[in-house]
Amino acid sequence: MALDGIFLQHLVAELQPLLVGGKISKIHQPSQSEILLTIRSQRQNHKLLFSTHPNFARCNLTQQVFYQPDEPPMFCMLLRRYLDGGIITAIEQLNLDRVIRFTIRHHNDLGDVAYKTLVLETMGRHSNLILLDEQEQIIDSLKRVSPSQNRYRTILPKQPYIAPPFDSRYDYRDLPADLFATQHDEAFIAQNLQGCSRRFARYLSERLATLSQAEVFAQLTTTPPMPTLVRGNQEDFYWLDIFAGVGKTVASLNVLLDEFFHDKDERDRIKQQTQNLAHFVNQELDRNRRKLIKLEATITESENAAQFQQMGDLLFANSWLVKPHASEVSLINYFDESQPEIIIPLDPRLNVKQNAQKYFQKYTKAKTALIIVQEQISLTENEITYFETLAQHLSQATTQDAQEIRFELEQNGYVRARAKKHRRHMPKPTFERYLSATGTEIWVGKNNLQNEHLTFKSARRNHIWMHAKDMPGSHVVLCTDQPDEATIRAGAMLAAYYSKGRESSSVPIDYLPIRQLKKPNGAKPGFVTYEQQKTIYIDPDVDLLPEQLF
Fold it and tell me: I want to staple 37 with a disulfide (CB 3.0 to 4.6 A). Which of 17, 48, 195, 423 is the partner?
């Protein structure tokens, strides 16, 4: 990915006529590394995204819909205080470095005109978004950098802003005439040109092998941007088609960045929003699995209950053989046909009768424990199944899906409900909708609340229900009572893809009419039992999923 200084030069040129003079109307922070400004300019609303993600750092106009956290983070609140209602007066790049400065005019607390500068530094893991006052002093930043982290420049409130080290390489628009006359390999070009990535240097090296330096750079300065996107195993993009015609040309650099980074950003954003939930679910899974091991060990011990009863009976029958204060006694086991001798441990502080009673108590306790432990094993196995299902749902969740999963955990008492002032009204669960090749609508739930809603409230009793056999997965409903083979296979493909078996082959999918489903009393959302089902085997393949409806 080549988001270098030369790319940013063209991006700034594209942003300037669209945003300069625009008014900042909204400020949001969708994630730890992103800031979203809504800018009213030329009778249109533009959403400008700033990202300081180590791998995806950039700024671009976006058409995507972003999740808004319940409570804005502190830096977001700070930006709202200083920039809300401000007018963007300038967008500039620092030389050909990966630094963009947005100058914003606003009114301070006294009503006087003031200026602030928002500086975006897109430098890998050092990427940052910094707010400066008129004296170039730092008000705050998205990432604070202490002197112990960076001796050259401290990024903390009330500290003077120091720009990144100056790039002393040549600007491609002002080169010495003979710079690449004798040497023009990829490494040499990258070492001598400002804002030039290795990928672009390779392209220039190939051009300089057949054309003169003057011709190559004259074309470079006069050629309009041709935003090009490459998909596949080697994903890439650039402001120019440097990919030998294998890329796709898009309308603008903003569209290019929005399209290229959307899926990556969404996955990272979901990971941030769900990491606490995923940690809790995995923690509960580990706890219940350890509990199950202990319960099964208790069952093994309880199965020896009959032995305790025999020991008590043998002590009563042979009390005359037991010496006072003995720690053990060897007796013939009359309950065994071969009548072997067994050694029975004794408590020296107790007499024969008391030792026998102690073994009878162990027998009674073991019998009672066997019943209780068997019940606990059943409950624990249900808990494991439940949390395995949640883990599966979280692995494929969107941000909205994750919020519904959290709401479900709150409703079931697993996590503490949020304070009322921070609690969102949870809307009616929505679910994915697809269309089979023959025109039948197919519904897919991506968490337990969606599964419950689509199966028992949205679907009809004669619709066909599908689910991966004996594994966590989504409920899939075919909105017909007479599905054809193509629709059944499409539904099975979705049920396999949205299940724990999505990476497997030949996944078994059960299907039957919804009227044959049973929901046990007190069962958790999405849990059903069934019988008399049919089963189809399918190989999950994302390329064969039916068309999705929006």
Answer: 48
